[in-house]
Design brief:
Blueprint lengths: L12 H11 L10 H8 L3 H13 L3 E3 L6 E3 L1 H13 L1 H5 L1 H11 L2 E8 L2 E8 L14 E3 L4 H9 L2 H5 L5 H17 L15 E9 L4 E9 L6 H23 L10
Antiparallel strand pairs: 1-2, 3-4, 3-7, 4-5, 6-7
GO biological process, one term: negative regulation of DNA-templated transcription
Protein name: IclR family transcriptional regulator
Keywords: DNA-binding, Transcription, Transcription regulation
């Protein structure tokens, strides 16, 4: 995840670099060294050093004595708690999505747009499973993922065109839209999937807090979740769970029918 610069005079590149450093952290990290942060962000070590010092002084990172690893600090934790509390649909859907994970034996995930990729903002793993594939903070591509297909299919035309999509992305979106209209969920085509170690099915949800669609997905290893099971069992279960969440939160469906 390289931190990008922007030539627009209104864009604060130093702030972007600092936030990019915080975004480099994943749920399973036991702290990160300067070299690890530099590798994840694409920033020079000298820049990383200045940013970690500043962020530590402000409480967004913590650094204990001679330990060369930086961890997210109390200010980051407080900010994350405030952000989570302000997104009501996550709390409302907690029990619903956990039950879906338990019943299907899949990892249920919430994916949100993160620059030109998607980030898993929340995951629900089946009860009794110690570790399962992906964690919050993990980033996946839009093109080639079922969650990306669901989100771009639910975008309005103006917002989609603002991304300067390629012809391949246009077809990816169009086919995803057809899937959502016909059956209510999307599955990335096998030959386009960004990874051959996980299969997933996704459904968009209108997150008014973000002003754009997000995607709920169910994923698992291909040996657990093959295409037939996604299409006949897991896809319909996920679709129905998202519809129930829409009713619980009073949200309109994410998909806007196009003429």
């Amino acid at each position: 995840m390289n931190v990008r610069s922007n030539p627009d005079r209104r864009f604060a590149n130093t702030l972007a670099r600092g936030l990019g450093l915080l975004r480099a952290y994943r749920a399973g990290d036991d702290g990160l060294t300067h070299s690890e942060l530099a590798a994840r962000t694409g920033l020079p070590n000298s820049t990383v050093s200045r940013l970690t010092f500043t962020l530590s002084e402000l409480g967004f990172l913590s650094h204990e004595g001679r330990n060369d690893r930086y961890r997210l600090g109390p200010a980051a934790l407080a900010l994350g708690n405030v952000a989570t509390a302000s997104v009501s649909f996550i709390d409302i859907g907690e029990a619903l999505m956990q039950k879906l994970a338990n019943d299907t034996g899949t990892l249920v995930s919430l994916a949100v747009s993160d620059d030109d990729r998607l980030m898993l903002a929340k995951t629900w793993r089946p009860s009794g499973t110690a570790s399962i594939w992906l964690e919050p903070g993990h980033r996946i591509p839009v093109y080639g993922s079922s969650s990306g297909r669901a989100i771009v299919a639910a975008l309005d035309d103006a917002r989609f065109e603002a991304t300067a999509p390629s012809d391949e992305m246009r077809k990816f979106r169009s086919d995803g839209y057809g899937e959502l209209i016909s059956r209510g969920f999307t599955i990335a085509p096998r030959d386009l999937r960004f990874s051959d170690t996980i299969n997933a099915v996704a459904v968009p949800f209108h997150a008014q807090e973000y002003g754009q669609p997000v995607a709920f997905s169910c994923g698992a290893l291909p040996s657990v979740l093959d295409d037939a099971r996604m299409e006949t069992t897991i896809g319909p279960r996920l679709r129905d769970a998202v519809r129930e969440l829409e009713q619980m939160t009073g949200r309109s469906p994410a998909l806007v029918r196009r003429g």
